[in-house]
Amino acid sequence: MGLVRLRVRELTAEKGWTLKELSERSGVGYSALKVYARSPGLATVDVTALHKLAQTFDVLIEDLYEIVQE
Length: 70
Description:
Helices cover 51% and strands 13% of the residues. With 70 residues, it is α+β, with helices and mostly antiparallel strands. The mean pLDDT is 94.
């Protein structure tokens, strides 16, 4: 199974937001965002959260993650 890393920390910093602000803007739980921001690789990700984050950051879903292990 592959692993992905979400670019939450980088995109949040580009906007000048905190994770708490991102949670409020996106509707994604703060605890989930902390995991996404800190994890070097995730095997599973909530697709609904990806959709919300992509809308909030105004990016494509593909721009939210990078594959770290195939």
